[in-house]
Amino acid sequence: VQLQASGGGLVQAGGYLRLSCAASGRTYSSYSMGWFRQAPGKEREFVAAIRWSGTTTRYADSVKGRFTISRDNAKNTVYLQMNSLKPEDTAAYYCAATLGWFAEMARVWRYDSWGQGTEVTVSS
Questions:
Q1: Mean pLDDT throughout 89-99?
Q2: For residue 48, what pLDDT is reported?
Q3: pLDDT at 116
Q4: Which residues make beta-bridge pairs with 1?
Q5: For residue 48, how many C-alpha atoms fall within 13 Å in the half-sphere facing its CB?
Q6: Given the DSSP bridges, would you call strands 77-82 and 57-59 parallel, antiparallel or unpaired?
């Protein structure tokens, strides 16, 4: 599956953004999806994941209660709604896909396909 992320931008602290990740391929609905982020000079870190069926989600502690992951399998798209943004949320955000649902959904190595990053900058 090929992934294309979009929706990044510059926003003030306390603001919101919605990221989208469009997937190509007929088997998209079989893939569980994740969002990761990487700030300059830091390792890529897990943000959120959603099961292929949409019935299960998982979040990093740092974004719980502020971010929401969702998907529309009819549109082959996964979303990341980001509210109450903080300067520390500034990073390049990446979507990723994997077949199945695993205990290690927060691990970079679990994912088979990656989209290009979309930049999110939160000003204070």
A1: 97
A2: 98
A3: 95
A4: none
A5: 21
A6: unpaired
